[in-house]
Amino acid sequence: MGIAAAEPLPRGLSPQDTLRSRKQAATRLAIRRAAIELGLAHGYDSVTVDMICNASGVSARTFFNYFGSKEGAYTSPRKPLPGDAALTAFIAGGSSGVLTGLFDLIAGTFVEAESSLELFQARHRLIQQTPELLGREKERISETEEIFVGYVMERFHHDGRTVRDTPDLADEARMLVALVSGALRFALQKWAAGNFSDDRAHLVESASALIKRITGNEHWP
Amino acid sequence: MGIAAAEPLPRGLSPQDTLRSRKQAATRLAIRRAAIELGLAHGYDSVTVDMICNASGVSARTFFNYFGSKEGAYTSPRKPLPGDAALTAFIAGGSSGVLTGLFDLIAGTFVEAESSLELFQARHRLIQQTPELLGREKERISETEEIFVGYVMERFHHDGRTVRDTPDLADEARMLVALVSGALRFALQKWAAGNFSDDRAHLVESASALIKRITGNEHWP
DNA sequence: TGCATATTTGCAGGAACTGCAATTATTGTT
DNA sequence: AACAATAATTGCAGTTCCTGCAAATATGCA
User: Fold this and answer.
1) Between the CA of residue A170 and those of A21, A155, B61, B191, what are the distances in Å?
2) Do B183 and A185 touch (CB under 8 A)?
């Protein structure tokens, strides 16, 4: 599954590269493109599933096989989870902070395995215009929180922290993930509003600077 | 509208206390009760609007007049906004921090003008069991973010801060609201999981302590 | 008491969605 | 190359949610 595709492999060695899977990917993309274009042209609420199907050449039943719901054609294609290398680096930590590292880790999942940056940008343009989709997209950040809490706990353990030393370590991990999720909601929205002109490092850096300022200024009780 | 109702007023002085408004309140409550009881008995997905209408004795058209959607019978009854006194206190600030004060301000809006604590708890029990409702409830925190950004800007101005001194003051306010929203998502879920046993002051205090610890431990870039 | 206004209800229809099974396309084996 | 197995697509009927419209009913006011 992690096989580099720099060179075509014999068919038997790559169960993922069949005519079927290629056609599926093309169909999925065609539906998404149609949905997004129609949305930008008419507004999300005016687009019907039938319109999308007509424009992409599939039946409505097939549409729902692919996306489950009308909204599914518009929201992130998969649950944002990090790659192995990024996760390993986060858990190993080093000089980077947990909060900053987690922010970077999750932000990295939003640069999607989307075949087209143009489509990614078009999708997000529509999302910014559509409160309902914006809310759903933000909710997606929350769907994987438990998984990230697990990663943070691994990081804590790697850093030598234990529940014996800090009984509410799990709550700390949860709060950390919640804070980062909150910060990401702001950061990603700003990123989209700036038409994705910032690179990821700058995203992380400016968010961290704001958080540092805010919490540094705080009069803690 | 802020008239204390400790004593019944003559009918003419209280346009809000008519037979109509009382019947509406009763109908709204009956629908909500029916919805929540059915949801706890059968699961949210198995409850139909017809079932709720049969149990509460209204027509489906009336249901949608009241709630707009099936989900609306389950989510928070109104956009959580603070009362005038709480808002004035937040903007005046004093010794409390902005982040902590904002957390407290928003947390206060979640003790709803619900006629029944028991119904509040039942609703939240169902929400915890229903990922879709949980996601929606969490996102409700975001619906009023712009308003809270405005309050934070007022607080900043009260504290003598200006855009001239801090050009990205608005971004700071936004990030602050986003962080607090994130923290609230965790804190409210924990509160509900503990069956609402903590009082608000403890909620604020434990959340603040965690945030302080996390950000104090952080290796900022 | 009668009229104006607000609320509830009934109804038809559109849109999203689901279960089921037939049809079609692709894959694997001989 | 032929055929069987498997996967994907499609057609179809029905349910559910939701909306617009207008008639019926309840309440408020002069």
Assistant:
1) 41, 12, 46, 15
2) no
